[in-house]
Design brief:
Structural class: alpha+beta
CATH class of the largest domain: Alpha Beta
Oligomer: single chain
Order of helices and strands: HHEEEEEEEHEHEEEHEEHEHHEHEEEH
Number of domains: 2
Distance between the termini: 25 Å
Helix content: 25-40%
Strand content: 15-25%
Mean pLDDT: 96
Low-confidence stretches: none
Bound molecules: zinc ion
Strand order of the largest sheet: 1-2-8-3-9-16-10-15
Length: 414
Amino acid sequence: MHIQRQRLLDRFLQYTRIGTTADPNTQDYPSSRGQWLLGEILTKQLKEMGILDAEQDHYGLVWGTIPATVDGPVPTILFNAHLDTSPEAPGDHCKPQVIENYQGGDIPLLSGDSIRISESPELEQLIGKTLVTTDGKTLLGADDKAGVAAIMELANVLMEHPHIPHGPIRILFTCDEEIGRGTRHFDLAKAGAIAGYTLDGGASGTIDVETFSADLATITFHGINTHPSVGKGKMVNALRAACRFVANLPLDHLAPESTSQREGFLHPYVLHSSVSEASVQILLRDFETAKLDEYAQYLKQLAQDAMQDEPRLRIDVQIEEQYRNLGDKLCEFPLAADLAEQAYKRLDRPCKRDAIRGGSDGSLMSHLGLPTPNLSVGQYNIHSVKEFACLDEMLAAVEHALVLTQLWSDQGRV
Ligand SMILES: [Zn+2]
């Protein structure tokens, strides 16, 4: 289908070598220079392909259009990937290692560590495939440079082969997805599409049609500080109160440590503290959006109880909305996922619909008005120095996207 495997690999390797770690500790947008740099390179490459409207906007987002090759009213669709990588593992100085024709077994990394089958059983399905790892010191950034490379190859193939019938295809590379800012400067009117697809998934054949709904609770404990020598009867230690509060949260249920699949949780993950003031951040997650209110009520009740035990303590509970289940919006426009499924069928490949225990740019885009499921692109062990990617699955993602563009163009002409 005209896809150039080596070109896809070369692009991917080039992009992984540019460090684009998102930085949650700055309000700059994008949060790291590498994202500007990668965006510039992509814009230039899109222009070289003949995509004349390719631009990096003043927020750092990269936009472009693959013009329609058919006449008449054909819907515009959009493909999206994100430029940044997770701050949970180092991302600079990535040294990608290509393993052709993987023969099974643990994969030794130059760092001395290895990617073990016992920890990554998916490897069993990847024998004979081409895999890309790092040297074990950084993440690979296949999340989401696999998506970026796949979309670039899709664009290249379509620009080289104008006889392939398709409608207008918008390309969008976003910044700072990993720190929840991926759609901060997303412009629905500028996207101008009827449906979108994020290429930001794992093993082949998966269409993610749901994400968590998510809120962030910030709980602030106001205590009373004195010199410890005269603390008797006076001191109210906010740090102790915060730790007691966290210890009272459930662990055998409603916790990331004890839930899977469709179960939600409360996840305390940040604590800043002194004696006079402490603040705890807790992630509230569930596939049922209504459950988030129950979780918030539960936290407020715990705070009430703690203040009853120690009336000099003051506790504020603030709840902020983060994102909402992608499925709440996709069900209003089932065609987006249905055509993705049909494209797999046309390729004679198995596929399944799945739910992400997390968020995606797609959930925010969908709630802004662009229904956007997520598609597989061969990412594994993301956010880790043991991250790897499967080139064959990246290639399969490009093939799938090509068929998908044709199915959309058929839609417009019936
Ligand atoms: Zn991602």
